[in-house]
Predict the structure.
Amino acid sequence: MRLSSVQSLKEELSSAPHLPRAFARTAGVASVTRAFAETIHDAHVRAPKSTEVALGVAQGKRKRDFVLSARIQVTRGAKALAATIVDRSRGECDVRIVPKIIKRQPPISFFRRRQRPLEAGLSIGVVIPGIAHAGTLGFVVEDRDAYYVLSNNHVLADVNNSSPGDPVTQPGNLDRRASRSTLIGVLDRYVPISFQRSNVVDCAVAEIFPDLEFWFGWTEALPGVIRGIRRISVDDLGRTVRKAGRTTGVTQGVITSVEVDRLRVNMGTEADPMIAQFSDQIEVTGTDGQTFSTSGDSGSLIVDTTGRAVGLLFAGGEDENGVDFTYANRIDTVLSKLGVSLVH
């Protein structure tokens, strides 16, 4: 289906009186009939706490042809729901069962060690008394006042629990093995994660101490210097991307879905879950059967092969066949929300 047709269908579904507002905002994608929309609506009405489907736009079989991407985030009844989606969308869909999407925080030795100058991909974390954790230094960013390290809220602000001025170390506490000084700066600001409304970013910055050295614009993911940002759209489906992260180092993948809405992510632990919803996200899958990211890679900057930044990695999970999916915030949205720009 052409993009213009998809947009018209989205508008049509958004104004349908029988659809709840939360669903109507996100339901419109390729070849979704009114009957299909009603089916999903009925499923949510019957079991709103046990039936969740994240919806996005994926590449079809031909260029300029798009299909529905559906990520079913439950196990009970998931296969029946998947079959319904395939039937109602007349096969124009990419349906996967991905029951658990979690923040990518712990657990290539280089990225886990103490490294100076600072660079993208290194282990980093805010100091949390009594807890060893680590994520990834995404990149160095700036505003008129200072230079900062960019990562996730859950890496630098402990999911809203830290305060500006709290110490940040490299490597993160999980990777500290010596008494050498690892303090590199302090938490400056973050975008709070909401558990009542949908989020678009999981991001934070920590101000770097003035006497600390860092590489301007360099990332091992290329390797090379960042040339700017790319604002992701449906035209980027299938685009090859890379990242450098604390746990898996440099990996390559492809963008498999965009405009992903209703994505449920556990920002807590398995024992103490804290479910937040995210919208307008990017989905990446590793190439050649390889995993694109895993725990501890949260905060990684995702770049394309031309040297442009596309997203900030924050979560992921596996489908029923063990295929891993990584999710990222749009980098243009992240920078806008924080009021910073990439140093390049």
User: Anything to note?
Assistant: Residues 9-51 have pLDDT under 50 and may be disordered. The chain has three domains: 3-97, 116-208, 218-337.
